[in-house]
Amino acid sequence: NITNYKVDYTKPVSEIDITGTKGEGIYYLTDVTIYLAATDNFSGLKAIEYKLDNSGWIEYTGKLVFSNEEHHTLTWRAKDNAGNYENEKQIEFAVDLYNPIVSHRIWSEPGIAVVYLAAHDSSSGIRQLKYYVDGILTDNYVDPIALTEPGSHIINYAAIDKAGRTSGLKTITVEVEEFTTGEWIENLKFAYYAPGRELIRD
After folding, report:
1. Is the separation of the CB atoms in 91 and 74 below 8 Å?
2. Distance between CA atoms of 140 and 100, rounded to whole angstroms?
3. CA distances, 87 to each of 3, 36, 141 (Å)
4. Could you give the angle at the alpha carbon of 181 between the alpha carbons of 179 and 183, nearest 5°?
5. Which strand ranges, in their side-by-side order, compose the sheet holding 101-109?
6. N or C terminus of the chain with fewer C-beta within 10 Å?
7. Which parts of the chain register pLDDT below 70?
8. CB burial readout 87-121, b (16+ within 10 A) else e
9. How high is the pLDDT of residue 80?
């Protein structure tokens, strides 16, 4: 009797399908659903296994859904009925569901107003905080904005995070009071130079 044996040296082949709204880099702006599939044309597919971050191998049985702000590394491989394993494949992805938050505060005295901007993002982090002064785009915000020209000024500002989300453009009006030289007051025991920047005693 002659027995024929078939030897399977061919590795299975897998593929991944990711659904979700893509942002910048590794980020998605909505829930992420991942589907894994594989084929083996010789001995047949036995299973697909995956690891999420530092977990052990888990047999894939259906879609993987990620609906929170999270950051993961997914590793997977397919194996066939002959015991052949596909080379491991890996992707890194993150979910960023919320826009960055911005705020401002203003300090002023006659002759100057200073605007302080701040931005916060809990997931991907802030990539840029840009601002306009009276319609003119400036560099990325680093230092407080000092305004010395008397009158009203319009400040527009917005933050963009590393996922591509934006805070939306915010608008504030800043008034710079004109600085005028004060007058000497002589009817006290000391001379006072308004508006309070210099105090000289007799």
Report:
1. yes
2. 16
3. 32, 15, 46
4. 140
5. 101-109, 112-120, 145-147
6. N
7. 1-8, 182-202
8. eeeeeebbbbbebbebebebeeebeebbbebebeb
9. 94
